[in-house]
């Protein structure tokens, strides 16, 4: 019997495979993404709360009660972590705005935080200007989001403008760039959960703040 699901319950994922390697890989992915999931046998009806079924290409035809767009095969989950997460989030949170937001806190160590449909995809530290551009450009290039917003903290105005210029020069109208006033972020980040660096916490705060649109001629 399918269980009922409350409106406030998080979206559920069902892992449906008898392939031991695929099962281990898919359940490990769900745990790293902190997504609740259930395990079912291919062909077994899914619970009413399940919005995404993960399986293998060979077992896909056995999945019951699922529309084609609600099934992902492990063979489809290729590329970097951000690409994989975006594919999963695009199904689980289909009702949200199709927006990618990247927060950048430039500094000696640059924090980068990326969110798709308001769900965290990436949190990384870059240790040079070049590495910052490489990481951010990869996220932008690989994302299928309809709208891509990059928000850069103005703690170091010169570096912030340089990053903004380089990104707009490369992606032009495909992205929106904002320069964000960082005042107050240091105080607020102290209130956030510990366990990660100040740079990452600041990047997260910057991603949440609207900034001044930045354009190049």
Task: List the SSEs and their pairings.
Blueprint: E1 12-16, H1 20-32, E2 37-40, E3 50-55, E4 71-73, H2 81-92, E5 99-105, E6 110-116, E7 119-126, H3 129-142, E8 147-153, H4 157-171, E9 176-180, H5 185-189, H6 198-208, E10 212-213
Parallel strand pairs: 1-2, 1-3, 3-4, 5-8, 8-9
Antiparallel strand pairs: 5-6, 6-7, 9-10
Helix pairs in contact: 3-4
Structural description of this entry:
This protein is an alpha/beta fold. The chain folds into two domains: 12-77, 3-Layer(aba) Sandwich (Rossmann fold); 99-213, YqgF/RNase H-like domain (Nucleotidyltransferase, domain 5, 2-Layer Sandwich). It has six helices and ten strands. The strands form two sheets. A six-stranded mixed beta sheet has the order 7-6-5-8-9-10. Strands 2-1-3-4 form a four-stranded parallel beta sheet, covered by helices on one side. The longest helix is centred in the last third of the chain and has 15 residues, at 157-171. The protein is elongated, with a radius of gyration of 19 Å. The chain starts with 11 loop residues before the first strand and ends with a strand.
């Amino acid at each position: 019997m399918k269980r009922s699901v409350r409106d406030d319950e998080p979206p559920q994922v069902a892992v449906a495979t008898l392939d031991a390697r695929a099962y281990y890989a898919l359940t490990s992915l769900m745990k790293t993404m902190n997504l609740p999931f259930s395990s079912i046998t291919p062909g077994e009806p899914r619970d009413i709360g399940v919005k995404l079924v993960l399986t293998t290409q060979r077992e896909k035809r056995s999945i019951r009660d699922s529309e084609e767009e609600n099934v992902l095969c492990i063979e489809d989950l290729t590329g970097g972590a951000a690409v994989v997460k975006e594919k999963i989030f695009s199904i689980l949170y289909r009702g949200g705005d199709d927006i990618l937001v990247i927060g950048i806190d430039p500094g000696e160590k640059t924090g980068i935080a990326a969110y798709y449909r308001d769900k965290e995809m990436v949190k990384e530290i870059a240790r040079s200007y070049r590495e910052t551009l490489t990481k951010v450009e990869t996220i932008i290039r690989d994302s299928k989001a309809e709208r891509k917003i990059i928000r850069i903290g103005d703690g170091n105005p010169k570096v912030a403008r340089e990053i903004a210029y380089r990104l707009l020069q490369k992606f032009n109208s495909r992205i929106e760039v904002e320069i964000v006033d960082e005042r107050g972020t240091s105080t607020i980040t102290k209130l956030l959960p510990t366990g990660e660096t100040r740079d990452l916490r600041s990047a997260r705060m910057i991603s949440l703040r609207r900034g001044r649109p930045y354009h190049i001629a």
